[in-house]
Write a structure and sequence with these properties.
This protein is an alpha+beta fold. It has 2 domains: about 90 residues, Fe,Mn superoxide dismutase (SOD) domain (Helix Hairpins, Orthogonal Bundle); about 100 residues, Iron/manganese superoxide dismutase, C-terminal domain (minor pseudopilin epsh fold). About 50% of the residues lie in helices and about 10% in strands. It binds manganese (II) ion.
Length: about 220
């Protein structure tokens, strides 16, 4: 996704970087507070990227890959760094998508092909929303709830920690972070309230674009 060469002189070294937030920290107020966004983006996502780069040091073959490629073949990553790549590479990929599917003045419902596909798969947008919320609320501890293609079908799943469905063949194009760090400052233990509020931030145009890409 964001592999860029920062090498000077000798052997170029590939490193991942945190994509800039595409809006201000306070853009998602009152649904997600500015302080949460700042810590979440700069510190949490920042740490995933730092630790992913650290894990890949000395693995020139792996440094050539995108984060999607790394995670799609996580079982081929050497034992010694597999957990670090899984957790931090997953964290990088998940958050890179998460920032983009939110925006100032978001919310509403998806239109076009995505709207139709959601209704066909889940009954209605309201049913879809309930199922995503349910997947997020029921995820014990930290993780994510996703909308993805699996075996050509549109499904909802949740994963633990920073796992992404790509690790076992799924293609997620929409999802919500249910780690406490995503909501604790404003919502404390009230995950359902955070999830309900989060729908008001969704950038459906971006999700429709992700959908079209994942569908291929
Ligand atoms: Mn997070």
């Amino acid at each position: 996704m964001t592999a860029t060469s920062t090498g000077q002189g000798a052997a170029p070294q590939m490193t991942f970087t945190v994509p800039p937030l595409p809006y201000a920290f306070d853009a998602l107020e009152p649904y997600i507070d500015a302080k949460t966004m700042e810590i979440h983006h700069d510190k949490h996502h920042g740490a995933y990227v730092t630790n992913l780069n650290k894990a890949l040091e000395g693995h020139a073959d792996l440094q050539k890959l995108s984060v999607e490629e790394l995670l799609a073949q996580i079982n081929k990553v050497p034992d010694a760094i597999r957990a670090a790549v899984r957790n931090n590479g997953g964290g990088h990929m998940n958050h890179s998508m998460f920032w983009k599917i939110m925006k100032k003045g978001g919310g509403g419902e998806p239109g076009g092909e995505l709207g139709k596909a959601i209704s066909a798969a889940f009954g209605s947008f309201a049913d879809f929303k309930t199922k995503i919320n349910d997947a997020g609320v029921k995820r014990f501890g930290s993780g994510w709830a996703w909308l993805l293609f699996r075996d050509g079908k549109l499904v909802i799943e949740s994963t633990a920690n920073q796992d992404n469905p790509i690790m076992d063949g799924g293609k997620a194009f929409f999802g919500v972070d249910v780690w406490e760090h995503a909501y604790y400052l404003k919502y404390q233990n009230r995950r359902p309230e955070y999830l309900e509020a989060w729908w008001n931030t969704i950038n459906w145009a971006q999700v429709e674009e992700n959908f079209a890409h994942a569908k291929k």
